[in-house]
Amino acid sequence: GIVVSSLLKSTSMVTVDPGFMNTASCESQITYIDGDAGILRYRGYPIDQLAEKSSFLEVAYLLIHGELPTADELSAFEARVNRHTLVPEGFRTFMGTFPVKAHPMAVMASAINALSTFYPESLNPFDDDTVELATVLLLAKARTITSYLHRRRHGEPLLYPDYSRGYVEDFLRMTFSAPYHSYDVDPTVVDALDKLLILHADHEQNCSTSTVRVVGSSHANLYASVAAGINALSGPLHGGANESVLQMLTAISENGGDPKQFMERVKNKEDGVRLMGFGHRVYKNYDPRAAIVKESAHAVLATLGQQDELLDIAMELEEIALNDDYFISRKLYPNVDFYTGLIYKAMGFEPAMFTPLFALGRMPGWIAQWREMMKDPQTKIGRPRQIYTGATERNYVDLANRP
Ligand code: ACO
Known about the structure:
Elements: E1 31-34, E2 39-42, E3 45-46, H1 47-53, H2 56-65, H3 71-83, H4 89-96, H5 104-118, H6 128-153, H7 167-176, H8 187-200, H9 207-216, H10 222-233, H11 241-254, H12 259-267, H13 288-303, H14 309-322, H15 325-329, H16 337-347, H17 354-375
Antiparallel strand pairs: 1-2, 2-3
Bound molecules: acetyl coenzyme *A.
């Protein structure tokens, strides 16, 4: 817990800090994490209170604008996001041109990036109204894009939004309605997805958010910056972990369902195998989000009348880890991703859709961080230094003279 607020101006002194383990890239007022105590707060509000009492768009407003909205501000914000849910015909066609089995994260990053070409009037990063327009457009289109990412894999058309419904409820309806059939959205499922999106909404300077800030620091527009964040999120050590967790649980199940045997492989670091969904750069305690997700997993499965053997395997893995010295000594606990995939699966999403759902949830955080950075007088273009370890000066050798 050290806070140093001095700007290193000298060009002769350089620090090396692989992975930025000890380097703060900025000051921020958005999200507070105490990794040792397992605390997470958005703008000062504890994550468990927000997950229990708030809604995703309200949390988005809080992260982006700094304060909880009044009732009028919230309904105006919700209505404005709702109004922008449709995407242009050309944009839909563009998303439809990717191979059906393309990974949805790649399609999503491309689609978010392409938004700038369809909305050139929303690109000026220094005009407040324009930035607010881009914010609303991103939140609205991200929902439509994510819904279509699911549908296009099943050869189904994108559905029109129903403006009378809430953000999450209509997202589920647009995603899972069969053509020409209405879909009854279960309130427990809506509530669970709302919670999951809230839990993912921001996590200070993680890999994707740092990416958004670095890209934005060159004054690239919001869509370009967020698209870069989506690509960072796609890696299995970051957002891709939720998909990897389900693959891991499925593999354990298919190999006879012996979690103990799998854990021996993890501890022996066989083929670099890791217990996916465990460990975190900042949390050296139980991730407070994981506790909420675990509870939610049980609620959703019970409501949908489903039993999932993979949930039993997950709980057994956790039980082993919490009592095993390998994990205790390294302070490895479940992170937010350990149980999320099981909920998404119960809702009807396939593993490839898990990380896009993470991206949908993280959208407000990326936007809030980008906006904070653009207003911060301390911001400079992100440009780390290096320690050069290559060849010293040498003379060019003509092709004919090379060995
Ligand atoms: N399973 C087994 N061992 C692990 C795990 C794991 N999941 N995570 C860390 N370790 C071990 C490492 O092997 C290392 O052991 P050593 O000291 O014997 O070499 C030690 O714990 C420290 O690990 P690092 O990789 O140095 O920790 P770092 O902070 O760099 O990594 C990370 C954090 C990437 C999240 C890591 O814990 C991991 O790979 N976890 C699995 C992937 C995952 O769940 N990612 C999601 C992160 S949360 C998110 O993106 C929302």
